[in-house]
Amino acid sequence: MQLSPFGLFDRWLSPAPKPGRVAWLRESEYAHRGLHGAGVPENSPSAFAAAIAKGMGIECDVQRSRDGQAVVFHDAELGRLTAESGKLSALTAAELGRIVLSGSEDTILTLSQLLAQVGGKVPLLIEIKSPRHSNTRTSTLCLAVKRVLEGYVGQHAIMSFDPRVVRWFAVHSPLTSRGLVVTEENGKTLPGMVRRRLSLWAAKPHFLAYDIRDLPSRFAAAQRRRGLPLLTWTVRSEELRERAARYADAPITEGAGVA
Asked: What is the number of structural domains in the chain?
């Protein structure tokens, strides 16, 4: 098969991983922020326990606390998910660990605590959050995640919207599986297509985690054909499950999208 010029650059600047290294990514359905619902908050010990009990992989989010630890929480602000307000990054991990997640008795976990809970029983996808469109340094959180993962033998990968994060792991932790999270929202024109390619080449990911709203996608399909597993988020309905089964390798699901 003759490759396009873009395909040649993809192969050169962002080589596909060896198949055996990434095969496990295709073998699970992943619970988006754990298996959460009424009375079970997202990214909570209860949500992760429910996913483990169902035999599902887990997708979670991590942010950096004031003292530089990786804590499991999606938002930069505390208000949506707790009775507190303000920025998560203004508090230490110990202070965050005393904050109760709304509608439950669960509190905010560190990544270390989550790894102890999972204990290799199911695969784990760790999305590293960062303010992508700023000059904020990402290395502190990346290093915190790397240190926590040292010695963890369960199947796991990091991923991020921010190609700087993924590239950091390519350079400083090359044995860690790494993924680039992609959405084509507000970026379907030529400048958006160029940004996606540049992000791919900079990040050098082993897999993509793609917005289900954008599938089918020529860009995603091209990367999948050359050996990058294609995960897709967030699958919230049976209709989206069918789309994921047709155009991707594994779904990241919640609510009515869970099998």
From this structure: 1
What letter does residue 99 receive in the DSSP assignment? P
Q: Looking at residue 60, which CATH number applies to its domain?
A: 3.20.20.190
> Model pTM?
0.96
| C-alpha to C-alpha distance for 26 and 240, rounded to whole angstroms | 17
Mean pLDDT of 94-113: 98
Sign of CA dihedral 109, 31, 61, 122: positive
DSSP-assigned letter for residue 153: -
169, 176 contact by CB (below 8 A): yes
Average pLDDT, the chain: 95
Q: Which two tokens stand for residue 196?
A: 């996606």
Are 30 and 59 a contacting pair, CB within 8 Å? yes
Give bridge partners of residue 61 from the DSSP assignment: 127
Q: Using the 8-state DSSP alphabet, how is residue 38 labeled?
A: T
* Angle at 136 (CA atoms; ends 62, 151), nearest 5 degrees: 40
pLDDT at 131 over 60: yes
First vs last C-alpha separation in the chain: 37
SS3 per residue for 189-257: CHHHHHHHHHHHHHHCCCEEEEEHHHCCCHHHHHHHHCCCCEEEEEECCHHHHHHHHHHCCEEEECHHH
Q: Are 87 and 77 in contact (CB under 8 A)?
A: yes
Which residue, chain included where needed, has tokens 């102890």?
A: 116
Q: What is the pLDDT of residues 177-216, one digit of tens each?
A: 999 999 998 778 888 999 999 999 999 999 999 999 999 9
Structural domain for 236, as ranges: 5-11+19-257
Paired strand residues for 160:
180
